[in-house]
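Postdoc handover notes: sequence design on the structure in folder B. Input tokens:
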């Protein structure tokens, strides 16, 4: 695990962008796993900037979202497909095409079948090269809430009360408007991505980051499964890293791999 601790979200996101640009340059058919929530926004700004400067393009790339709300209206601005369209799709953004942006079908008559199909599609296109991740305050990645299987495939999930409260800010601060179900890539699915890049900002992520990096592996803190992945890059601001014990070691390991 490589952990970079930065003064603020913009600098941390720049470091995450560098990892993605390098991986994309290495592979002609690069597939990116994309996340939603507010955390990846500064990273997407860096990717758009790199695209505008001709240093990065998702023009021929597949992109796979981690998750989608079940039952959300197709034109709802917080439907993750619509969020990702705004952030990434089009030649003025990152070059990603709407056809190659894949999101689980939260409107499907049978969401269980839609989940299984989504998992198969990721395999069919050859898997995800770099998966971008945020983390919930309760340690969820994607929407894999505490107590689920650590080897799950893409599945229908119920949202934890903590997540519904946290996400109410996107739904007029009304928890009743937050969908209670979703389709999410499973932890087993996420773990098959070749590189995982997780971003976390703010003090309300400090406990989850401490559990992820230094806690025991446990379904109660789903992100801890990442301890079993050989290629993980985590970037945080100082607040999100404030509960960690071995920061000097992490700084040294980061400098060894990426320079200062
Ligand atoms: C959301 C998403 C996750 C995201 C997390 C944190 O509900 N499903 O993919 O990482 O919760 O969100 P934020 O980045 O807004 O704090």
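Designed sequence:
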């Amino acid at each position: 695990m490589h952990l970079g601790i930065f003064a603020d979200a913009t600098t941390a996101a720049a470091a995450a962008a560098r990892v993605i640009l390098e991986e994309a340059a290495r592979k002609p058919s690069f597939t990116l796993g994309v996340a939603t929530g507010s955390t990846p926004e500064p990273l997407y700004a860096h990717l758009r900037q790199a695209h505008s400067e001709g240093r990065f393009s998702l023009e021929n790339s597949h992109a796979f979202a981690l998750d989608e709300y079940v039952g959300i209206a197709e034109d709802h601005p917080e439907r993750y497909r619509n969020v990702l369209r705004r952030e990434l799709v089009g030649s003025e953004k990152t070059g990603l095409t709407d056809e190659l942006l894949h999101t689980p079908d939260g409107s499907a008559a049978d969401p269980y079948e839609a989940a299984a199909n989504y998992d198969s599609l990721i395999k069919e296109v050859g898997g995800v090269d770099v998966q971008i991740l945020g983390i919930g305050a309760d340690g969820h990645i994607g929407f894999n809430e505490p107590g689920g299987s650590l080897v799950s495939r893409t599945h229908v999930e119920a949202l934890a009360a903590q997540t519904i409260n946290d996400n109410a800010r996107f739904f007029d601060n009304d928890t009743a408007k937050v969908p209670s179900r979703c389709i999410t890539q499973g932890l087993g699915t996420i773990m098959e991505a070749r590189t995982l890049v997780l971003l976390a900002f703010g003090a309300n992520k400090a406990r989850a980051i401490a559990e992820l990096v230094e806690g025991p592996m446990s379904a109660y803190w789903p992100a801890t499964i990442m301890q079993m992945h050989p290629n993980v890059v985590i970037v945080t601001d100082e607040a999100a890293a404030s509960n960690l014990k071995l920061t000097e070691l992490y700084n040294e390991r980061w400098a060894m791999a990426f320079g200062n």
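Context for whoever picks this up: The chain has one domain: 2-258. Don't rerun without checking with the PI first.
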